[in-house]
Amino acid sequence: MIYAPQLPRLGTFEAWRDAARALASNDVPPEDVEWAMEGAEAGLFGGGAALPDAREMSVPRGFVQLAKLVCASRAVGAHDLLYRVLLRCRGNGNLLSNRADPQVQQLEVWAKNIRRDMHKMKAFVRFREVTPQGANRRQFLSWFEPDHRIEELIAPFFTRRFGDMDWVIVTPEVTTRFEGGELSHESITSERLDLSDETEDLWRTYYANIFNPARLKIKAMQSEMPKKYWKNLPEADLIPGLIAQAEARVRQMQKDAPTLPPIRAERILERLPVRAGQDDLHSCARCPLGAQATQAVGGAGPLDAPLMIVGEQPGDHEDLAGKPFVGPAGQLFDEIAAQAGLDRSAAYVTNAVKHFKFTPRGKRRIHQSPNRSEIDACRIWLTREIAQVSPALIVALGATAAQALTGNGAQIMQRRGRVEQGLDGLPVLIALHPSAILRSDQSAQMRAALLADLQLAAQMIEEISAL
Ligand code: URA
């Protein structure tokens, strides 16, 4: 008797698992089973015989993980080989750890291809904002062409990462929706969506900024970002030009090197020369704030962090603890960062101004924002931290940080969520300050905005790690 289980495009793994359990628990040999994807041309045996009832059967844990991945593969014979290995696992619980077994090896290769495909999708999905006026959640749309049937496997990643927005990812065979916190998949055929708007300009600026001609490795770049993905990437048309100019840019960088640090920092240094005894943050008297504060609060975090977070100035708690972002604003920041998928301990966290500025009121010390000359006077310490850490991306939290990092003191609400060119030549992502959320009567919207900004930072950092 021949069985011919039809596997649906959605829920493929679950359908395979149920059929495989029914067949294997009744000792049906693999030669009697013809696996097919639903909608594919009916095989020699059409629908085949009705499946027998499943009986009790146990399966090694690792097999289920492997089967979930391999079921998404488009490789010919993937479902059949999975079934063969499942039958062999019954008599040999350690079969999967035998890396020399050719069937296990083949399944591992297919699983690896699925993981790679998922990694590419995480790195190369680009969302276009399509929020209609008056909507209370931001809405995004994206197009992606995966090699395998990975839409259901990858969806939890995007729901975690972009949980506060509504989004749709369209692939040639499946449309995945996340609306109002509900995830759904639909098996429908779609043509390539042509998405282009200002978000693409943001990616292009960002990519041009992080492209380091001195580290150009064309082969590695092409294997990480194969050409077939280029057509969906807004930054892709920059690549040939950037590669072509790379040599000249490296020569120019070498020539320019002696002119670093940045011109702006030099101007500040001229105005406020570092005198003997003042070349130390903890004895800094470049502005009056140090006289009033308990101590100067420098940055904290790994000195090779790819991400630098810059706040305004230490608050009451930070002034006493000597560490940045440990008070209420810091706790709120940590919470939203974790939700955005950003690990604070992997970032270097600091402030634009290193001393707490306040006015005493009774026993309380009331926060005062630093003024322009205090920000400028303190810039030297931030410049040093940036030079030391050399992050790939800086996030400016609030107006003071944005002013210190970009020289532009314009309103944050219009700039947030965008990458600007910093005075130190590094990309600066402008974001809201967590204290603004604590102070606001529209805290839900402000929180969603900071979450979106930090999600963008997380995505950019992931992108850099993939380069
Ligand atoms: N606010 C900031 O900007 N920085 C801190 O360190 C704490 C609160």
Features:
4 domains, elongated, binds uracil, alpha/beta, 467 residues, 5-stranded mixed beta sheet
Offer a quick outline of the entry.
The protein is an alpha/beta fold and 467 residues long.
Number of helices: 17
Q: Helix proportion of residues, in percent?
A: 40-55%
CATH topology of the largest domain: Uracil-DNA Glycosylase, subunit E
Q: Could you say which overall geometry the principal axes of the C-alpha atoms support?
A: elongated
CATH architecture level-2 label of the largest domain: 3-Layer(aba) Sandwich
Low-confidence stretches: 257-278
CATH class of the largest domain: Alpha Beta
**Largest beta sheet: strand ordering:** 3-4-5-6-7
What can you see in these coordinates?
It is a single chain. This protein is an alpha/beta fold and 467 residues long. It folds into four domains: 6-120, no CATH class; 125-187, no CATH class; 199-256, no CATH class; 263-466, Uracil-DNA glycosylase-like domain (Uracil-DNA Glycosylase, subunit E, 3-Layer(aba) Sandwich). It contains 17 helices and 14 strands. It has a five-stranded mixed sheet with strand order 3-4-5-6-7. A five-stranded mixed sheet has the order 9-8-12-14-13, with helices on both faces. α2 (61-70) packs across α4 and α3 (78-91) packs across α4 (102-124). Mean pLDDT is 85; it is low at 257-278. The structure holds uracil. Uracil binds next to α13.
Write the layout of secondary structure elements.
Elements (H helix, E strand, L loop, with lengths): L5 E2 L4 H13 L11 E2 L23 H10 L7 H14 L10 H23 L3 E2 L9 E5 L7 H11 L4 E5 L3 E6 L2 E6 L10 H13 L7 H7 L2 H4 L8 H18 L6 H9 L17 H4 L14 E5 L4 H6 L6 H13 L7 E4 L6 E4 L2 E4 L4 H18 L3 E5 H9 L12 E3 L5 E5 L2 H6 L3 H24 L1
Parallel strand pairs: 1-2, 4-5, 8-9, 8-12, 12-14
Antiparallel strand pairs: 3-4, 5-6, 6-7, 10-11, 13-14
The site of uracil (URA) has 13 residues, from α13.
